[in-house]
Amino acid sequence: MAARDDGTAYLSSWAVKDLRALATRLELRGVAGLRKAELVERIVDRTIGFRLNSTAIRQL
User: Which of 5, 18, 37, 45 supports an S-S bond with 49, CB 3.0-4.6 Å?
Assistant: First the structure.
């Protein structure tokens, strides 16, 4: 996925249980009390957002 919105749209259909499992695999901390939308946002930031930020930094 090339954009944060794509990741958000994809993950929004997942169950919270599955999102929490994914967050665990990504070693995200402090996600236990997050709402679904916040959890999706954190996962997208950790994956797609990280990649996009890295690409932008490399282009400087």
Answer: 45
**Which sequence spans correspond to the domains of the chain?**
4-58
- For residue 31, give the H/E element and its range: none
* pLDDT tens-digit readout, 25-49: 999 999 989 999 999 999 998 888 7
How distant, in Å, are the alpha carbons of 43, 52, 60 from that of 18? Answer: 12, 24, 37
Structure tokens given for 55: 């690409």
| Model confidence pTM above 0.70 | yes
Separation CA 55–CA 43 (nearest Å): 18
